[in-house]
Amino acid sequence: MNANLEQIKQEIIVGAEELNTSREVYEFKKKFLDGKTGKIGLLMKEMKNIPPEERADYGKGVNELKVWALDFLGELDTKMKAKELQNRYESEKIDISLPAETTTEGNLHPITLIRNHLIDIFAGMGFEIFEGTEIETDYYNFTALNTPQDHPARDMQDTFYLSPEFLLRTQTSAGQIHVMEKQQPPIKILSPGKVFRSDDDATHSPMFTQMEGLVVDKGITLCDLQGMLDEFVKKIYGEDTKTRLRPSYFPFTEPSVEVDCSCFECGGTGCKLCKGTGWIEILGAGVVNNKVLENCGIDSNVYSGFAFGIGIERTAMLKYGINNIKLLFESDLGVLQQLND
Amino acid sequence: MITPLSWLKEYVDIDVTPQELQDKLFSCGFEVEELYELGKDISKVVVGKVLTCEAIPDTHLHVCQVDCGEHGQFQICCGADNVAAGGKFPTALVGATVYATAKDHKTVEGVMTIGKGKLRGYESFGMLCSGVELGVSENMYPGAGYNGLLVLPEDAPVGADVKPILGLDDWIFDIAITANRPDCQSIYGIAREVAAVLEKEIKVPALDYTESGATLDGFTVTVDCPDLCPRYSAHYVTDVKIGESPAWMKRRLALVGIEAISNVVDITNYVLKELGQPMHAFDLSTLEGNAINVRRAKNGEPITTLDGQELTLTDANMVICDGVKPVALAGVMGGLNSEIRETTSSVLFESAKFARDNIRRTSRALGKRSDSSARYEKGVDEYATVMALKRALHLIEELGCGKVGATHADINTGNSVEPRALTVSIDRVNKCLGIQVPDEEILKIMNHLTFAPAIDGDNLTVQVPAYREDIETYQDIAEEVIRLYGYEHVVPAFMPSAQITVGGLNLMQKQELRLKKALCAVGAYECIHYSFFSPSDLDMLKLPEDAMERNAIRLMNPITEELSLMRTTLAASMINAIARNQKRGNLEGRLFEIGNVFIPYELPLTRYPNEKARLCVGVFGDKESFYTMKGIVEKVADTLHVKFTYENTATSYTHPYQTAKILCDGEEIGYFGKLAYDIADELDMRTQAYIMEIDLKTVSKWYGNKPVFKPLPKFPEEQRDLALVVAKEVTCGEIEAVMQAACKYITKITLFDVYEGEQIASDKKSMAFSLVFTPGEEAFAADSVDAFVKKILKQLNKNLGAEIRS
Questions:
Q1: Which residue of chain A is at minimal alpha-carbon distance from B552?
Q2: In the predicted model, what is the mean pLDDT of residues A170-177?
Q3: Does the beta carbon of A207 lie under 8 angstroms from any beta carbon of chain B?
Q4: What is the pTM of this model?
């Protein structure tokens, strides 16, 4: 009997030599240890044919063989798996210097990026975003903004007319009139949108994007405009940026100012970008002309306000160093792919 | 506004450097766009006296010994015919810069630096210069126009810099004038501002003259259109002697870019530049009927302007007529028939105010511009109208070219040239600015502006000069105060008295941004195209004559025909963008645009049109297909938490069998499809393209949709794969609909394979679906899912003739 067990043991030892994979180890293991069909399993089934006085020894011998086999084959399995893992890794050796595979993601248009940035800044200051219509009437675009028919300021803007009454808005302030007509102060609105002027060269496009802001409330002064502008330029161009107001003219503001910020390229010492002046013109602004408030039914004895307008393309061109405005509207993928945030 | 410093100095004592003046003007609202020294390109040119001058044999050259005083004595070769011993000439030393001229000795070709030279064996250490080489014309310096050396006066100190002698040390300011300050469109107008900012007195130009007593008996001036001509003044001048203007006047005109013509004409131009008032001089001998009449032109009325151009007028134009015929196109140009000639012996001077809008329209409509019309377009005030006539008459006397007659006509619609009083509250001025400007500062500033201020308590009363038509309210006074007090006094504040407002994007704006970001995530780049497009784009899209898109709003004054219609579809711009990319070698890509289309309710417009936001996506390249585009459409639906369905449709610019209508809740919201092959060919496209448009204004009604949370299934889901054989025309959508109707437990149907080929009948196709069954309140019983499948197959067979693939 012991000879039989010993024979099985030798069979396992010899047979194991031939095993090359963990799968073979598994099959080999099954051949001996499967409860129903395995050779050791079958020995257990033989138990009932063993004379009762020999059963204890027989059982012990078979059990010892089983424990030994489990242990022996288990160890073999572990070794085999480790070897296989190693082989698998080695077979998957790669050249890490091969080019990357990327999933392409598109970009928002640079105008949208700048627009979103500005909206974020002003929304935080309590500005609502109002987009008016691109087609406006002469009244809302000019007359209500203190620019009647014979006003010299109409020459400043070459207007596209659709009919004697309707035109393409030359400024987004047209939409702000609609807001002021419907709503009493406090008003804080930001109006981004497309505007149109009959102008076409490297720095002018017949369509461009403006973002105008308007605040109307009690006690608003030129100092508040200066304070808000300081805050704004710091957020967009950096903490050290300074602003400078200088007199200008817009029919809907009085006093009117042109706002320069210290050059973000050279910090104000003078460079190519600021043409040696240390300053860059960024927007126009002013105290809202009372005539505009009165045109909208807002009592100028109680309320006052300020307004400002930023050209988005100019900001984008400065930010990305683009020298021709046309590039922004040509949708050339070679350009669009470069202009991400 | 070109302003020579030397001319400004006639009215103000300027004791600051040109650069300081530039800064001062800048800070008070007058940006100097360009500031340069007249002789900026000329250096190291001194007065040289030719001591000896010997001809070089067989050439036109002379070799000269030139005494340049402190700089030394030099041998210089010279080719000019007027070089002579004893003469004084501008001498460019070695290292000097002067203008290089072409062979004609007239055309300037750039700046050159003088070096040592050798001509015909003779060494030359410098150059004797002509006027052209120094940038000096005959009008700027008498004799400078000679095609040879510029001859300097005998008393010119040898060795001295020639620039002060020739006036090249003058400075030119090119000043930007804002539209509210037409009163500064003149040298004198600028001088008033300079005086204010430098706190100096302004010297008024001489306006006095003596009338001779000569009259034009029975002469009448009438204005039939006072709305277009609020003021018309005329004055009679006799004993006119047409001749040259004095050098000082010619020089000033030359500095501001005006060619001298004759004394009388030069006076009108001089007054225009000096005071900003256009003047006109008629040859009285050509005027018939002893009258001037200002009226609207008759429709079809002809006039020949003094540049010889024949124009046909309409009643939108204004003419100056004598008793019989038009003699000038008012405010724009005189008539050829009444032009000043050498023989002119008596003149009628006109100084008038014409409505700026009328001049502008006439000038644009007839394509006729002049210094006069440019000036009128900006607005002329009556103060200058009166002053200018006096100034012109003074100059007639000063130049001795005529006698001022006694006949004077002045048609005035009642406006005064006297200052008008304005009282404002100082408190309101300060509240507008947000700072307290001391009363004495306000007084000082108002005084420098010659506003004759007086303060009584909170009341500031000023006398606004007639030329300051822009000053009407306390806000205008606030601006005058702060621009001269200085913007650096403004103290930043942050709306301390304002109420809190809640800002940010509204739902529509937020969803639009989410949509844009979702499209970027599928690899699309955002584009922005013009809101206008071309009529030829409508043809490119092959839209039929009655297509809705052809009913587009037209610009009355487009830049070009290409940009003459408001967009009624975004597809054309997108297709053009794709074609442009392909031309530049970008053969694959994804683009999108969100923009408005403009749908008129009627044409011409009588109310706001329907301005609707649309989304347009264009994809192109070999990797794209109808289904990749459909994937983008589904991405839009997912982003907005809506479900789209599709139906076959057709457009004039897409593939007839690869175009789908997009529906949301049964409502049509857009389409997508493959670009038609003939259009792709016409645009030389090299890869296929697909286009999609969705009407966001319609979709926006679902913008409020939120994702709905469904609890995870409590019991395990089961999955079954079904391979079906169906007739080729059966669609995936139909099969899915039947499946869904047959079993309510189906929560997901995925088509994973379509096969047509040898293994099945030629009129059939095989479609393999994966179905997910999700149990409800209790787990599926052992065979229930098999029963569902059986039922589904039965329904598919009954409705669509589908068989299970064996």
A1: A162
A2: 90
A3: yes
A4: 0.82
